[in-house]
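Ticket 4471: requesting a sanity check on a complex prediction with nicotinamide-adenine-dinucleotide. Repro inputs:
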Amino acid sequence: MADFEGFKTLGFIGLGAMGRPMLEHLANKLPEGSRLWVYDVVERVLDEVCAAYPNRVLKGTSAADVATHVDTILTMVPEGSHVRSVYLDPRNGICSTNISNKMLIDCSTIDTATNLEVKDHIAEHFPSASFYDSPVSGGVVGAIKGTIAIFLGCAETDPKFPQLTQLMELMGKEVIPCGGPSLGLAAKLSNNYLSGIIAIACSEAFDMGMRSGLDPRTLAKVYAAGTAQNTICDKFCPVPHVYPDAPSSGGWKQGFKVQLMRKDFGLAVEMAKRVGSKNVLGDVGLETYNGAANDPRCRDLDSRVVYRYLGGQEDWQSESGHS
Ligand code: NAD
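Returned structure tokens:
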């Protein structure tokens, strides 16, 4: 097994809801001699993490500054425009310094076109550098617990795969090589498309059953035993109080924000169009998540709040006489 030889100096850019706990896993788990250089446009966050890990986590003044100090860089920023700026800004971007031989890993969930644009730029200007897409799944709770799944944009035969796996396993549970550049992102977007569609279908199916007189707990049993069985029903049931641990039972306060689902769903529909994949549910799904993300009753809540957006009964226990 490798000994983290390649990770004596590591950079982390973007210390938000996901990036910060991921950085903290690295700071806690890499060997003592490793140094982590960090950068975020929000200075307060930088000061906090540097103070929490004195002499271990060091403050960079820009993405380019971080790149001059380290051999490996992880980035975790919101959207394609931020990724473009972090890598390609001519004054402060990573690629404005000499990044020959460095390994760059972008964990952001963005469009595959921007990812490939950055990859092509790096391949043209720094052929010895390597750039990977590596989006993650599992939410903020997963990032804190270190249980996120990681979808790597490379083949299992990639010479850097063992090194990448070793690094990513410090932050997550499962690392899945998806085959090649931008395919980690394609996998993540198609997963979130499917999960988003299932949540809508699940909400509608519960609603029609409940309005016909069925107890949602009976419906949940039926789906679990029948051909409709799926994780959204079983673990993220959109109907409140069917399962106490589902986000809906806590008022959808914990979970994957509906605005993030809207973003990922939109990226998936865009990708589908670009590659010529026909999807009859794409536009209607996007319209639904657009509506839910802009609805003050749903905004900032777990995406399965789409059940509320679609008019599902929430206080079914009192309304129907069930207890
Ligand atoms: P966030 O908004 O909490 O954090 C993003 C961080 O990036 C912020 O601290 C911001 O200041 C920083 N940033 C923005 N532009 C920058 C720049 N040019 N230079 C340096 N720093 C910059 O977002 P998040 O929830 O951590 O999500 C990050 C990515 O992970 C997104 O693409 C998101 O879709 C994806 N993701 C999020 C979740 C989730 O549940 N939050 C789950 C899986 C994947």
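Notes from triage: The two ends are 55 Å apart (CA to CA). Leaving this open until the requester confirms.
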